[in-house]
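Consider this today:
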Amino acid sequence: MSLMAVRIKVMPTSPEVDLEKLKDKLRKRIIASSNSSIKFEEEPIAFGLKALIISLGWPEDKELESLEEELKNIENVNSVEIIDIRRAFG
């Protein structure tokens, strides 16, 4: 089974959103979909707003759009965008 290295940009609804709580919700949803390692980075946008950049391994044979939709439905998430996909192993 091959893995893809995926980077996803998650925009919170406002600068007041607790990013640590949001990371926990995102982590739980991702682990439920695929038991992969996850790394978070914060990217400053403007006026105190920060995007979360999620790096994770994803099975190549599994649909990624379903994860994207699940992440969009989390409270305090404004948008989700897949910003990079690369074949990692296999």
